Amino acid sequence: MQYRRTLCLNGGQVIMSISKPSKLLFSFCLMALLGACTPKIDVRGNLPDPERLSEIVPGEQSRAEIKEILGTPSTIAVFDQETWFYISQRTETLAFFEPEVKERKVLILKFDEEGFVTTIETLTAENGKKIQPIDRKTPTAGNEFTLIDQLFGNLGRFN
Length: 159
Known about the structure:
Layout (H helix, E strand, L loop, with lengths): L1 E8 L2 E8 H16 L4 E6 L4 H4 L9 H8 L4 E2 L6 E11 L6 E12 L5 E8 L22 H6 L7
Antiparallel strand pairs: 1-2, 3-5, 4-5, 5-6, 6-7
């Protein structure tokens, strides 16, 4: 079955027919294009389940038990080996735009000298501070060559 539409161009008639399969193909292409715009979700890091986290009682578990319950920490404090960090972040990227941070969590576990948990603290993206990197360049010693210097600089330097 064919559908007919009539278009008038410069006083004349042009007959254009659209078949049912071409409508289906157009609909499929439109859905594929719209489906390509769904955000890409990226989860990074190591954030334990809240159920596993509820098993930890300060003063009762050692480092080895924490490692067994929660797994290896994302990082350990550099100057204070008594602090462990479990860091995770969830971002969404839509098409070609910059990724947007949807969720960020940092779990901080502090241990005493004997290796038992003393405090458990959770930080989110709201606790963080936005910093603006300084956009400067460090000058380096040396010569700056132009394109012509680079192309013809070695002419006449033969041993």
